Amino acid sequence: MPSDHHQQLLDSDDRETSYDQTEKIHIVGVDDNDDDYTNATPPFSWRKLWLFTGPGFLMSIAFLDPGNLEGDLQAGAIAGYSLLWLLLWATAIGLLVQLLSARLGVATGRHLAELCREEYPNWAGKLLWIMTELALIGADIQEVIGSAIALKILTNGFLPLWAGVLITAFDCFIFLFLENYGVRKLEALFAVLIAVMAISFAWMFGETKPNGKELLIGIVVPKLNSKTIQQAVGVVGCIIMPHNVFLHSALVQSREVDPRKTGRVKEALRYYSIESTIALAISFFINLLVTTVFAKAFFGTGIADKIGLGNAGQFLEERFGGGVVPILYIWAVGLLAAGQSSTITGTYAGQFIMGGFLDLRLKKWARALITRSCAIVPTLIVALTFDGSEDTLDGLNEWLNVLQSVQIPFALIPLLCLVAKEDLMGVFVIGRFLKTISWLVAALVIAINGYLLQQFFAEEVSGPAFTSTVVIFTVAYVAFIVYLIWRSVVGSTFGFFKLGSQST
């Protein structure tokens, strides 16, 4: 069971919380013979599964944002069907990470940002917050630009990128409006947007008719060669979004679950595992559709390496013609749904990250506006500067992908350290086998992204001044990662080999 320190955290009334008690969804049957399930797990109920369904689908949006769609289309166009197996396993890796995040949130009653504030010294906590905010801003720029590109296509170029950015900025107000009417209304909106993506890209799949046999072989038979290694790295690298790890640990607290009752926690984890698996299976299906469409259309052609979000629809139109509904607009509708949904979840994540790391007492609308402004201002600058230059936008997207890759250890390492601490997790601490698998997965993801960084900087970094700056930041970066791992072994607020006199 949780330690006394953990119990104090649960019972504290003056701390920042993910959801007010009035906002949480009541689970039918929780009050019926509740004492019977203090330790025992209640029987399975389809009705309860429905009530727990929602957080996993909000989490899955990060697997479908415009950055992922661009990675999909480039993997399909350049590598054909050969990387579909990697897409499947990358999604499985993402599911493992997100289930650990959900486990942390349900078992402790707190989310990752809050726990990082308690776990690490003030300077380290603030540095983690800065890193996470940078990752969130970078992701939001990609998402907002994706929405703006879609709006530009749908208006036949009438709306420039900067206008699309301003329109997308109002997502924040839609989010705030729906949040006032309850969590379920917000979750329903995301379900609709995911359905729009699924229908749009399935329509494209039907229009282009990819090869079914090659598709199945691509999923089952692992293939990798030197020509597709960069796309392979991109497929894995864009699956785990740092802010999404923080987000999921907070989303699961939207349901009434008493972390002091082992049976209720087990029940919640069971339902969250089922709905998260379903949600990511759907996201895999959508990513699969996009990859195979572009594999059929452009693999082996001379323009395969020139396709990006901005020109993908036009190339499809030239390849397959107009049809009853022009494929250009079908692509734009799917891209718009991806961009709109991911920008709203970015705003949502920003609330929890800012509130958790800084222990703010601001109203949610104030935090949402601050978070939105942090992303919209640089995005507007990007739109005004690079509108009409697709090559430059693609180059910027590569830099933003690098930014995401750099931040991944600062979400994964704290998560894995915290879920392995018995004094924090109680009976829900992960066992040795799961801990080993999780760290191996984290090492693999970090190594893959390290390769991506090395390749990128080898191509982009030049000149002694720039090189020296990169080296200095790299040394500091590696030192901070080593510190995070070291601290999990020798000292922690929540236990393991705790240093009794250590101050946080």
From TrEMBL:
Q: Name one Pfam family in it.
A: Nramp
Q: What is its main location?
A: membrane
Q: Name one GO molecular function term.
A: cadmium ion transmembrane transporter activity
Is Transmembrane given among the entry's keywords? yes
Mind listing the UniProt keywords for this protein, alphabetically? Membrane, Transmembrane, Transmembrane helix
Q: Where in the cell is it found?
A: Membrane
Q: How does it sit in the membrane?
A: Multi-pass membrane protein
Gene Ontology BP annotations: defense response to bacterium; iron ion transmembrane transport; positive regulation of reactive oxygen species metabolic process
| Gene Ontology cellular-component annotations | vacuolar membrane
Give the stretches traversing the membrane: 49-64, 84-106, 157-176, 188-206, 278-299, 320-338, 369-387, 399-420, 432-453, 465-486
Note down the stretches annotated as region Disordered: 1-20
Its family remark reads: Belongs to the NRAMP (TC 2.A.55) family.
Listed PANTHER family: METAL TRANSPORTER NRAMP3, SOLUTE CARRIER PROTEIN FAMILY 11 MEMBER
State the name under which the record lists this protein: Metal transporter
Q: Which organism is it from?
A: Lactuca virosa
Upper classification of the source organism reads: Eukaryota, Viridiplantae, Streptophyta, Embryophyta, Tracheophyta
